[in-house]
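Q: Structure tokens for this one, please.
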Amino acid sequence: MVAPMGVMKRVTMVFRAKANKALDRMEDPRETLDYSYQTQLELLQKVRRGVADVATSRKRVELQINQLQGQADKLDRQARDALGAGREDLAREALTRKAGLQGQLEDLQGNYEQLQKEEEQLGQAAQRLQVKVDAFRTRKETIKATYTAAEAQTRINEAFAGISEEMGDVGLAIQRAEDKTAQMRARAGALDELMASGALEDMVGGPHDDIQAELDRMGAGQGVDRELEKMKAEIAQSAPRQLEGAQPGSADGASADATDATAAAADPAEAGEPE
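A: Here is the predicted structure, written as tokens:
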């Protein structure tokens, strides 16, 4: 039986500890202070109602005392009037009744004095309690303001801590972005150099075909040859027309014309169209 009891005590202690910790997390000191202040106000209100009740009772006893005192005074006058009228028996009866009222008056007077004392004590207690409640209210508001400021400061510090952690992550992200940007710039520069050197022409224009390139060069050369033959034919056609315009029998002129035609055929760039 010892082992199960020990286990139960440990379980109970753990449960209480966890419950206390959960209550600490749930408890707001400001709410607790407000509740305590409200409780003190209710207690002060009860004390004030007690003072009012005692004062009411005292006033009621005072009224009874005044009423009985009035009756006693009336009986005293009646007794005197009865003696003046020679009715001693009536005077005795009035004095007997007055004596009964005097006993009641003494009891009521004692009760009145007791109520008056209780009223004074309760009034003083209410005043002392009022002072304590006012002091508690001032302290409560001070504690609440301090707690609120501390809570705000804690949240600010937590926010700064979170921002610091976030800024660390942001710094790593920025560093990675800068590294990737540098890599992209280096790659773009390398591609520009390759494009400028012509090393990427084959990649852009497709697979290299050396046969087609040779045919293209030959075609370009044939075009130049055809243009050259055309110029020669035009010069050859213009030469006979110049010979027909020369004087017949002039060997020197014919020789000169032949020499000019030969020079024109030799240098097509200096030959021109006949006028």
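A few notes: The chain has a mean pLDDT of 76. The helical segments are 2-26, 29-84, 88-197, 201-205, 210-244, 251-266.
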